[in-house]
Amino acid sequence: LYCVEHPAAGYKKIFETVEELNEPISAKITGIIPSWLSGSLLRMGPGLFEVGDEPFYHMFDGQALMHKFDLKNSQVTYYRKFIRTDAYVRAMTENRVVITEFGTAAYPDPCKNIFSRFFTYFRGIEVTDNCLVNIYPIGEDFYAVTETTYITKIDPDSLETLKKVDLSKYLSVNGVTAHPHADADGTIYNIGNCFGKNMSLAYNIIKIPPAQTDKSDPIEKSQVVVQLPSSERLKPSYVHSFGMTDKYFVFVEQPVKINLLKFLSAWRIRGTTYMDCFESNDTMGTLFHLATKDPAVYLSTHKFRTSAFNLFHHINTYEEEGFIIVDLCTWKGHDFVYNYLYLANLRGEWEEVKKAAMRAPQPEVRRYVLPLDIHREEQGKNLVALSYTTATAVLESDGTIWLEPEVLFSGPRQAFEFPQINYSQYGGKKYSYAYGLGLNHFIPDRIVKLSVQTKETWVWQEEDCYPSEPLFVPTPGATEEDGGVLLSIVVKPGAERPGFLLVLDATNLMELARAEVNTIIPVTLHGMYKRRA
């Protein structure tokens, strides 16, 4: 893949504050939107990057803005609304940052007297509910989420905020990821850190049942199904996603750590943020953990290790012939990638952006293969017996298994990230294709399809265009894995209509249609496509 340059730095526009809309606006369509495509693309991302004269500093700090492109009878409208989280409402009321975000500290209100400040101090840090990362269904409801235990129920039609839910009321977790897995019946699985009694640490996999026949809230029936141990006592690894097959859970314990002592004392130290609580462990490498799904049991006998990498997104995981295949978007080394996602970095001039990315960990799509049957006598020999992969797993003398990956995609400072697959039919199963957002020195500038079997790539790219994570929507009745379309929100800053919904044919990434609106759309992280009922 060739590297495109962005000297005009139009990408700065996707990190600028916008206003919400009072009503949906109609889009101008070029090309032909498939007649079967009837539903809405819902996306989450930051939309307010400062409050009064106080800026937010990190990409994950801007206040949650929900976007909706509605497709109906080949007509398209666009709508957006800020989620009325506590973080947003209080910031708007006081015209300052009130709740500490990922990389921005909130300071006590200077107008409060010493007495009320003293009480705030004892209440501890208020955990943010700024749900800018993703949106997904639980039962019949829809929730906007971040990585704290606060999730926000929203109305997917009106984009109204309905209620704030605290998952820690129902489950012993201190946070959950924004990347749950779902079974065909609507059962949801997720993973989160748990700081237990006497500082014992674990990672809990949780399960939320599907919609209940008695119309009760499935969240009330959620439970922890299995607990995985932390390799380091006071320092859990940062967890952003996990893998799931029909029979197994896969958890990758990375060398990016949360320093619990810092985290727990953070609220006493003025100006500490979540980012300040991360540190890297430069000796542990990366560990893979397995658990069975039903019954849910941690496989403590299977200890897999490999060299250090950062991991945010699992692409897919499946079992074949006694092996578990784990496909990942990795970043090499233990230096934390989020250190490079401060807005000052991303809004820099192109040469500066490139320089910063030169220092950052390098991205690589990798396939790891974990053998389920481990024979003691096969020490030093590669246990992977699958014909189609060069990934290896070797039993060491200490009983651990050392993994080496097969590289599926690699380009200097060219990441294949925000991966998506045909999840409804191939999630947790053997598959052929992944779709992703191409990051060029962290700037999103193309959409990529990757064959995980042949390593062939297809690319959609257009000058001065900044796309977002492509979501796959299968054609009704399709027989091929890639029979469907990709939907992505693209920003073209200089254009007369600078924001558009792009519809691509998923087989070859040819453009089918675009629906343009005359407003800029800031960066979006994740989202979902909701079919019309």
TrEMBL record:
Is Lyase included in the keywords of this UniProt record?
no
According to the record, how does the cofactor bind?
Binds 1 Fe(2+) ion per subunit.
Question: Which is a Pfam family this sequence falls into?
Answer: RPE65
Key word ATP-binding present: no
**Which GO molecular-function terms appear in the entry?**
all-trans-retinyl-ester hydrolase, 11-cis retinol forming activity; beta-carotene 15,15'-dioxygenase activity; metal ion binding; retinol isomerase activity
Q: Which UniProt keywords apply?
A: Iron, Metal-binding
GO process terms (BP)? retinal metabolic process; zeaxanthin biosynthetic process
In this chain, Fe cation is annotated as bound at 179, 240, 313, 526
Which cofactor is essential here? Fe(2+)
UniProt xrefs under InterPro entries: Carotenoid_Oase
Q: According to its UniProt record, which protein family does this protein belong to?
A: Belongs to the carotenoid oxygenase family.
Protein name (Swiss-Prot/TrEMBL): Retinal Mueller cells isomerohydrolase-like
What is the organism of origin for this protein? Answer: Mastacembelus armatus
